[in-house]
Every structure is written in structure tokens, then in C-alpha cells.
Amino acid sequence: MSDTISSGQFSLAGVSAAAATAFREGRLASSEQEFDKAIQYYTEALQFDRLPALFRARVFEYRGLCFWLIGEFKAAEKDYNESLTTSDDVDQMARARVRLGELADFRGEYELATTLYNQALQEGNAVENLLVVGRARRGLGILDRRQGNTERALRQLTQALAIFRQGGETREQGRVLTSLGRTRQARGEYQQALAAHREAYLLLESVNDRWRVAQAVNDIGECHQALYDVDKAYEHHQRALQLAMTSGARLLIPEIKRNLGVDLVELGRYDEGLVYLQAALSGAREHGNREHEAMTLYQLARAYLHHEDFGLAVQVVLALTHMAELLNADRYRALAAFAHGELLFHQGRKQEAFNELNLAMLAAQTSVDRGILWKLHAAMSHVADNEQIAAVHLNIAAEFIRQTAEPLQDERLRQSFLFAPPVLAVLHAANINPNQI
Predict the structure, then answer these.
(1) Are 12 and 20 in contact (CB under 8 A)?
(2) Cβ(341)–Cβ(353) under 8 Å?
């Protein structure tokens, strides 16, 4: 019995009929996203004596993935390491290393993830395992995006997509398109981001990957959120949460709840929004996902600042600054300094606010999306005492707004963005008619 075309040689030769049956039942349960049941079958398969090392290694990998998908990260890591060391088959070792890279990335251990992906890429190329090569390139592309190198991220992800299309790997194509959509969004290229997320949704739905369908719906909603189409964003995020809960996609729930919190705050339902944001923060911390924790802290800081809950804002900004240093990535340093600068401005400490926002600007140049950059420049235009410097920042903010709006093909979405109060305030201050963009 072979696995997929691109996943390397794998056969059940030398495996007892009972162990093979348990393995097949595990694969079936996993494909139906009954991960707890799949874990039971894989555990049963591993109980048999005299199993080939490669078979044991593959079962550990598959069981580890099931543990990962239900949020049991220590168990997943243990199984991935067993998979890595049980067999000396280079193909299987590369597969396990990619999975360990995904786990390290999720935890915010970016240097370790980079090392694992690069080694897996080298091994995958050596044994011509397209699945490993594609997954490693996808992982490296995601890390490039996190570190602000979106050009290189797009190159890595485009190569990964070509590999999976060549191999006919539908689910993997959907995963890469999700990453491409997020990279496009990080560049403020929302039209292309929406196109990638919608294609990912269709592909993942075609293979009944309910877990990642929920992710695609969430990401589509996030694009609408960034463009101030908040009612539509809220619809998508409500649906994403329902899908995630129905399919048991526990890893996704904190991220979706964070988006629902942002939507509700934007809709003026502040107290409800805070409930979701606090739940998202607890979930991110429970899973040990530093990136999601940092993003939630940033959104909480903005919510508290805009509603003048300065005592709570101080606590959250301190926590965000600490998390940014743990992640050691410019994107989160920029977000932390931005939130801190706004807090100082609200406290009347204008010069300190200007200095902090300058630090945010330095970290932000290549690491944050256009949607953050225009807000940061708009804030600088308010804080700068020098009128000429303030005017420069205002014009840059207006230019980022124009670059965001012009490519949008959906006129309703375009109008929603241009006439959102924060956007309109910048355009009016810059003497720009939104109808002429």
C-alpha cells in the first residue's frame, strides 16, 4: 500500500495483517478528522511486535500530527522525535523534521524552525521527496513573512505551490494558498489576499478538510476587517468559530475569538468585544502560541486606549513589550512600540511618545503590513511638533491608503474602506477627496 505519489516510498510489506488493519483504520479516522479515534488506532498499531522501523516511524509521525491538531503539543513533539530517531531512512527523517519545524514555528521558536526546515529541505531534495520539499519551502516562506521579508516569502510559497500542483496534492495546495493569502495581506494587497483565501477555501472544501476550511473563512473575514467592512468580517468570523467548534479545531479558536473581539469593538459593542479578546488571550497562552498572544495583546491595548482605560492599557503594553522581545521579531517590536507610543501620547507625554513611535517606525519599515503603517504614520502626524514633519507623515499615511484602495475591484469594499472614519480623517486632513482615489 503506497501513500501519496509525492510522499516517498512507503509500503506495508513485512507488517502483520492486524497491525496493517489498525494503521488503515487510523488513516481513515484521520481523514474524517476523528483525531482521537485515529490516535487510538495508531497506538494499537504500535503495540505489535517485530514491526519494521520505517513503519513505526511513519505511524509515530501520523499520530504526532493528530496530537498536534487537537492541541496536545508535548505528545506531538514526543511522537515527531520518535519518528525522527526510530528509522534511519532519510526520506522519513525529513518528513519528521518538517513536522518538528511546524511545531517550533507555532511556539514562536523561529531560529529552531528555520534550522529544521533548511535541513528537511536539503534531505528532501536529496531523496527527491516533493512533499517534504514543498512543506519545507512553505515553512520557510511563513518564517520570512513573520520576519518581514515578504518578497522572499512570496518566492518560497510560489515554489511550494508549484510543487504541490505538480504532485496533485490538493490539501497541501490549500495550505500554501492560505499562507500566500496571509503574505499578500501582510503587504496590504487585499485583493490578491482575498483571491488566495477563496481558492484555498474551495480546494480545502473539496477534500472535506473542515479544520482548514474554518481557517480560510477566518482569513477571509480578517481581510474584510482590515478594510473596515466590519459587518461582513463579523459574519465570516461567527461562521469560522462555528466551523472550528464543530470540527474540533481547537488551535484555531483563540485566533478566531481575537478577530471576533476586534469586530465587536469596531461595531461599538465594547464589553462584548473585550470578553472575546480576553478569551483569545487565555487560549493563546494555553496553547503556548506567542504570536497569537502578541497579536491579542496588541488588539487589547488598542481597545483599552481608544476607550481610555489607561490603567489596563499600561499592563497590556508591558506584557506586549515582553512578548515582542521573546519572539525577537521586528513585527512585534513595532507593534509594541506603536502601542506604547500611543499610550504615552494619551498620557500627555508627547516627546516620549514621539521617540517611541520613531522606534516603532524603524522596526516597522519592512516588518508590518500597510494597514498598520498608515495608522502609524497618521499617529506620527499628530505627535510631531514640527509642522513640516507632521505633513510628511500625513502624506505618507494618505499614500498608503491610496495604495490599499486602488487595487480593490469590489466597489462596495473599496467604499467601505475609504469612508471608514479613521481613513476619512486622514484623507480630509491631507485635503484628498476619497471619491477621486
Answers:
(1) yes
(2) yes
Task: Please state, rounded to an integer, the average pLDDT across all residues of the chain.
Answer: 93
Cβ–Cβ under 8 Å, residues 323 and 338: no
The string of DSSP codes covering 178-245 is HHHHHHHHHTT-HHHHHHHHHHHHHHHHHTT-HHHHHHHHHHHHHHHHHTT-HHHHHHHHHHHHHHHH
Say how far apart CA 75 and CA 1 lie, in whole Å.
Answer: 27
In this structure, the number of other CB atoms found within 10 A of the CB of residue 348 comes to: 8
Tell me the whole-structure pTM to 2 decimals.
Answer: 0.91
Angle between helices 330-346 and 290-306 (to 10 degrees): 20
Residue found by looking up cell 466597489 in the block: 411
User: Cell 511638533 sits at which residue?
Assistant: 385
Q: Is 124 exposed, middle or buried (0-12, 13-18, 19+ CB in 10 A)?
A: buried
Please give the torsion angle defined by the CA atoms of residues 7, 201, 180 and 105, in that order, rounded to the nearest 10 degrees. Answer: -60
pLDDT digits (tens, 9 = 90+) for 225-259: 999 999 999 999 999 999 999 988 999 999 999 99
pLDDT in tens, 83-102: 999 999 999 999 999 999 99
> Grid coordinates in use for 264?
465587536
Rounded CA-CA distance 107/196 in Å is: 25
Are 418 and 400 in contact by the 8 Å Cβ rule? The answer is no
Q: Answer yes or no: is pLDDT of 104 > 80.
A: yes
